[in-house]
What we know:
The complex is a heterotrimer of chains A (464), B (300) and C (285). Chain A is mostly helical and 464 residues long. Helices cover 69% and strands 3% of the residues of chain A. In chain A, helix 16 packs antiparallel against helix 18. Chain B has one domain. In chain B, the strands form two sheets. A two-stranded antiparallel sheet of chain B has the order 1-4. Chain B has a two-stranded antiparallel ribbon with strand order 2-3. Chain B is globular and about 55 Å long. Chain B starts with a helix and ends in a 14-residue tail after the last helix. In chain C, helix 3 packs parallel to helix 7, helix 6 packs across helix 7 and helix 9 packs across helix 12. Chain C has two domains: 192 residues, P-loop containing nucleotide triphosphate hydrolases (Rossmann fold, 3-Layer(aba) Sandwich); 82 residues, no CATH class. In chain C, 42% of the residues lie in helices and 22% in strands. Chains A and C meet through helix 11, helix 12 and helix 13 of A and helix 2, helix 3, helix 4 and helix 6 of C.
Amino acid sequence: MTVSSTNPADKQQGLVARGLREAFFAGLISLGMFSLYIGLKTDQNMRNELVLVTRWGLLATLVILAMIGRFLMIVVVQPRLAARKSAKATAAHGQAEVPGFVARNLTAIAVVALLLFPPVIVSLFGMQGSLKWIDNFGIQILIYVMLAWGLNIVVGLAGLLDLGYVAFYAVGAYSYALLSTYFGLSFWVLLPMAGILAAFWGVILGFPVLRLRGDYLAVVTLAFGEIIRLVLINWVEVTKGTFGVSGIAKASVFGIWSFDVSAPNNFAKAFDLPMSSAYYKIFLFYVILALCAVTAYVSIRLRSMPIGRAWEALREDEIACRSLGINTVTTKLTAFATGAMFGGFAGAFFGARQGFVSPESFVFLESAVILAIVVLGGMGSLVGIAIAAVVMVGGTELLRELTFLKAIFGPDFTPELYRMLIFGLAMVTVMVLKPRGFVGSRQPTAFLHERKAVSGSFTKEGHG
Amino acid sequence: MEYFIQQTVNGITLGSIYGMIAIGYTMVYGIIGMINFAHGDIFMLGAFAALITFLILTAIFTSVTVVVALIVMMAVAILMASLWNWTIERIAYRPLRGSFRLAPLITAIGMSIVLSNFIQVTQGPRNKPIPQLVSQVYDVYGISISLKQILIVVITVVMMTAFWYLVNRTSLGRAQRATEQDRKMAALLGIDVDRTISITFIMGAALAAVAGTMYLMYYGVAVFSDGFTPGVKAFTAAVLGGIGSLPGALLGGLLIGLIESLWSAYFSIDYKDVATFSILAIVLIFKPSGILGRPEIEKV
Amino acid sequence: MNSDVILRVEHVTMRFGGLVAINDLSFDVRRGEITALIGPNGAGKTTVFNCVTGFYRPSMGMISMTQKNGTVCNLERMTDFTINREAKVARTFQNIRLFTGLTVLENLLVAQHNVLMRASGYTVLGLLGFRGYRDASKAAIENARHWLERADLLDRADDPAGDLSYGAQRRLEIARAMCTGPELLCLDEPAAGLNPRESLELNKLLRGILADTGTSLLLIEHDMSVVMEISDHVVVLEYGTKISDGTPDEVKNDPKVIAAYLGVDDEEVDEVLEEITHVTDEAQA
């Protein structure tokens, strides 16, 4: 080490110089990257020809932002991260830290908060005002929580990479939509049926691909997801193609009260309440909450049962599993089927909530989002996944609400347009910062002396 | 018979484009074992760079020869796509190298979402049509072959030859193959692994950019969502041919192109993608590592 | 000691393309004995193991396993996981294959999968909270505790398997294989990479298994001191063919073995012989 670098002031100066240099490069690169796409815009003129519009001001702003960002990264963020990391390295060891009091009671707190969510929202925003919060935030997030928990069984526990999970969601949704439209069956009959049908499809699709490993499995599941979507688009006689199935029957309170306005046993009429669509949404909120609870209960129970342990063992080492007499074929199939079943339940619920299903809702992006939630949450951790769903889905829903930005950026500014852009950036950022997800450690399913969380560095991610 | 040959020609044209994109998937997979989901969007970025360059050219010069225009478009597209892919590798993939296997897959999917939405935000969501650049059509024994098609096939052959030379005959290619086999050992032997991987991303991007330019010239239109479908098809092609195998990627691309055009011609255009994906599934079931892929030997 | 045959390998040949890994190999493993399979690197020992435990299907020949109750299983016709489940043959791996992200205890519970699966009514009854599964699950933990004690891992029960030292991982793998309740345990180089103390502990564990459970052992080993000390019967392979078969004493005096193992000229054989006797004497002392 030279004498000058031991002097903190000199070190700081060296850091600033490096920051400036890096910022210059960042500026150069971002200038190159953005010049064509931001500096110029292709617009159509009156004769429908493309013309270029220049936006040099915007380009300059972004390049300067990139330079400032890079400079701060080098001079401020990176030294701090390094300091924190070295502090952590001296403190932490193989085991993950013992959770604190709040963390241990997180589940109980979350359940109470969720149960109280609709009444609190209604009292805050009134019946009509609550709609947005309960539907767009509450129900929307819970659907993703349920889907991600379902996919977690396949990806997080069994370690099988499934890029076509949305197919089972679609099977569930269309099962409900079509069977209720054509045969008039009720939601409560069709909900289990949708789950069973999806599980059945899980087995059918799972069976041929069991021999495949790793990314081959990923691409075939992706292909199956696309096949199901394309069939839904093209089998017009049954599915009505891209128009989708509309006017799907609403769910009822176990057949006792209905939410159809014209029905004699309408919920609001039965209780002499003013008519409002909010009752249905509140009811749906509790339905999806119950479905999530079932998913969580089954996932937790299965993990401490032989089948769940076999899934995790399969993720860790398939060959060792076979040497221990575990039938890996049926083990994989049950993982596929169980995951698919929850997708099917969520699909049926989705159909009942929207009253309309179309292939548009089951694109690859949905599979990707669900998978991202599972991985961002920390594979295998239900709590982590729920947090990831709240952050990613809730966060992007919040962007819809940022109408005040119009005041800053002018009336043409539509925050919704930036929703997916920011979603993607968030995905990348979270993953780079926390590659093991929000909850990286694993809770063991049995213990002799004490329950110690297993650090993420020991768990494997499967290769199937 | 003429109809069949006609459709075969169309299939080969399409397949060449898929093949060129597929090389990028297969190279990145070979060297760092990750599916670069954003690669399809790099192809789309390439097409947009070509589109904007074309508009600049027509705005500045009143008349410009097609050959010059195409070359400039391709050069700018290669530059842009390479720069983007290089940057993406640096900020989104490199920090995750050697970490959890699914993490880079998720950042790649995230990047794919970012890229397509970036273009949607900056260039607008509409289709971007350009006038036809090359319009000659030749009649060869009753089969119409357009100059566009010939150009695409010729450029593919030229690019592939150059590429084959690069990978098999230069020290850069040797470094790439060594890194592919054993990254640690390659580093110990003095190969700059980071640089080799960066160059791999640049090479993949360059081919995707050429494919993007060809795609723009062939269909005369570009749109922000163009990355997805050709991307998935090219990825399918890479897997079908045996991921990690360069000739496999081209072969897979050609096969997918042929399946698509022949299925549309003889059966149903609506189900052409269903056919493509089904054939992929069937091939993998019988040959789990693709047509030219090295079979994975189970080490006990 | 009863010496009926538990595993009979008859005329087994295994080809990979043009390469003949095992050529017309026949040998017996007797019940209640420790049989060692030795030979230079690349002699085909692990291939024999993979044939016996169903990871490879031999190109030719028969492998039959006779259980205590008289059932005979033709291993060459069975798929990998049924060999453990039905034929009661368990194995370990040369490059240890533990479930590193699961705890030590969980590793042993996974090994009791089939028993627990039946007890849980193939998950359905267990999910509904039936008593039978809870009892079986307690019994499984007790069984695991027993094997943890034997393997001297009781205090590490709740740690991740990946966190154990190399020697402890080897013992855990053996304990895990024993949790499946095998009649024949195949060990692929159990002493590789162990220090002398760990090696001693391992010998104790293996002898204990033989004495208390009656499980016969078939092992591949490089460490001659281990082989000579604990095995009752030694089979020597070279280039996929058997060159010697007998008691440790018979084998170590077989000039063919010495030549094969050390690749020496005939005149040097005596010298090597002396060396080996010396080594084994030392080990026994």
